[in-house]
Fold this sequence. Notes:
Blueprint: H1 19-27, H2 43-50, H3 70-73, H4 76-90, E1 100-104, E2 112-116, E3 134-138, E4 145-152, H5 156-159, H6 164-192, E5 207-210, H7 218-227, E6 235-238, H8 240-248, H9 260-263, E7 273-276, E8 284-288, E9 294-299, E10 303-304, H10 306-310, E11 317-327, E12 333-337
Parallel strand pairs: 1-9, 5-12, 6-7
Antiparallel strand pairs: 2-3, 4-11, 6-8, 8-12, 9-11, 10-11
Helix pairs in contact: 4-6
Amino acid sequence: xxxxxxxxxxxxxxxxxxxxxxxxxxxxxxxxxxxxxxxxxxxxxxxxxxxxxxxxxxxxxxxxxxxxxxxxxxxxxxxxxxxxxxxxxxxxxxxxxxxxxxxxxxxxxxxxxxxxxxxxxxxxxxxxxxxxxxxxxxxxxxxxxxxxxxxxxxxxxxxxxxxxxxxxxxxxxxxxxxxxxxxxxxxxxxxxxxxxxxxxxxxxxxxxxxxxxxxxxxxxxxxxxxxxxxxxxxxxxxxxxxxxxxxxxxxxxxxxxxxxxxxxxxxxxxxxxxxxxxxxxxxxxxxxxxxxxxxxxxxxxxxxxxxxxxxxxxxxxxxxxxxxxxxxxxxxxxxxxxx
Length: 339
C-alpha cells in the first residue's frame, strides 16, 4: 500500500510555514510517483484520490463526502482555498498591471526606490570624468496592506448535499470579488501614490493630463503615449463608460481594418493592452508601463478559518487575502482626464 493511503491528516498541518500542501509534500513527495499512474498529481490531489472525492465534473461528489472521516475533513479547507484562488486567477487583471510580486511573512515591509542622477543627460563619459549614478534606497513609509475578503455564511446542513462542482462556482466568485477589490487598491496607488515622496518633497501621485476638448480623440491618446516617454505605453485601464468612448474613436473602430464590429476585439491604442474596470473613475484613463510601474506585496496566500471549516461550523468562516501596492517608478503611469 502506498504511503499516501495511510497518512494521518490533522488541522495542525495548516499552521506550518509551508502550508497544508507543503506539509503533505514533505511527508509524501511527488517525486516518488514519477513513472506511476499517480504522476502529475500533487500530494493534496493524491489525498482526494485516496478518499475517492471528486471535486469537479457532472459526477462530482457532494460536500458531505469530505466529512466522512476526520482525515478527509482536513482536506476541506484546502479545497476551499484552491477554488477561491482559481477564481482570483481567472479574474485577475493584476497580472497585466504589476511588474513585481513580493511575498512576505511579516506586516512591516518597505520597498526600494531608485533615484537616477541627471537622467536626461546622455552625453558620453569623458576620460577621467565621473560616471552618472543611480541611488537605490528604501522608502520612508511602509507599504500599506489591505485585507480583502468575504465571510462565508452557511450551515453544514444547507451545504452537505450540494454538489462540489456547483459549490466551486460559488467559491470562485468569492475569489473574483477579492481580485477586483485588489485591482481597486492597485488603481488607487497608481493614481494617488503610496504615501512616499519624490526627491524634493513632491507626492508620487501620477501626473494628470487633460484632453484638448470635452470628448476623447485619437490625438489625446497620442498625447498620453508621448507624455509617458521614456516609458512604454503597454497597458490602459478605463471604466466601462470610458471604454465605450474609446470604441467611438474612429481610428480605433474602423471595420475595414477588422475592428470591433467584425471581431468583437477593438484595435488597441498603439498596441496597449486594454483592461476594463470600474475601479477607474468614469472620465479617466490610466496609461502605464506595466513592466516597471507597480509592485504588489502579499502577506501569504488565501487565508481561511481552518478550524471552523474542518469542524463543520461553516457559519461565518472568513476567506481573506492581505495585499498592498507600491510604486516602483512613479513616472511610469499617467492619468488622462477627459473634459
